[in-house]
Structure formats: structure tokens, C-alpha cells
Amino acid sequence: MSWVRDGLVAALQLLIDATGAAGSAVIGAWPINMPALPSAPEQFGTVFAWIRWSPLPIDAGFAFILFALSVWLAWFLVAPVLRWAKVID
User: Fold this and answer.
1) Is residue 86 helix, strand or coil?
2) What stretches of the chain show up as alpha helix (H) in DSSP?
3) What is the pLDDT of residue 44?
4) Residue 44, class by beta-carbon neighbours within 10 Å (0-12 exposed, 13-18 middle, 19+ buried)?
5) Which of 14, 41, 73, 82 would be a feasible disulfide site paired with 87, CB 3.0-4.6 Å?
6) Angle made by CA atoms 46, 50, 53, in degrees to the nearest 5
7) How many domains does the chain have?
8) Is residue 67 included in any domain, yes or no?
9) Separation CA 18–CA 88 (nearest Å)
10) 33 DSSP assignment
11) 41 in a domain, yes or no?
């Protein structure tokens, strides 16, 4: 009976392979090219250059936001365990 199961598995695998090959052939024969992604406006380069040269500690602000989010996420994951252990209310 194992040869029947092996035959069914092989037939199912061939069906999956044929479906993938047919989909690939349809996509490959598609007559329309995909459009290119649009480029960013030139003003973005100027804005990012001004931000980079600003005296504000932008990298420190991002670091603080990342730290605050990571501490909140850690508390979100640890608090149920502490509640279960009756360490906190």
C-alpha cells in the first residue's frame, strides 16, 4: 500500500510543479513590461542635506525613540509573566 501513497504524492508533486511552470510561462509571455519606479524629487536631497547638517541631535532622538519602544515591548512581554508569578498587580 505504500506504493499507492508514494504514487499519489508523486502525482500531487507533479501537479504542483506543472501549476508553477504554467504560471511562470504566462508571466514570462506577458507582452507588457513593468514600469520603472519613479525617482524622488530633487528637493528631497536638499531637505535631507539640511537635516544632516542641522545642530539638532536627530540621531540621539531616533536612539531615544528606539530605546523607549524596546523597553515598552520588553515590559509588554514580561508583565504577564510577572503578573502570573504575582510579583506585580
Assistant:
1) coil
2) 2-28, 42-52, 58-84
3) 86
4) exposed
5) 82
6) 140
7) 2
8) yes
9) 58
10) P
11) no
- Residue 81 falls within a domain, yes or no? yes
| pLDDT of the residue at 69 | 97
Largest CA distance in the chain: 76
Cell of 66: 528606539
Cell of residue 85, nine digits: 508569578
Residue with cell 513593468: 34
The radius of gyration of the chain's CA atoms, rounded to the nearest angstrom, is 28
pLDDT score for 78:
93
Regions in the chain scoring below 70 on pLDDT? 89
For position 37, what pLDDT does the model report? 84
The whole domain housing 6 covers 1-31
pLDDT of 34: 73
Q: How far is CA 2 from the centre of its chain?
A: 41
The model's pTM is 0.39
- Take residue 63 and report the three cell numbers written for it: 536612539
| The one-letter amino acid at 76 | F
CA 34 from chain centre, in angstroms, equals 22
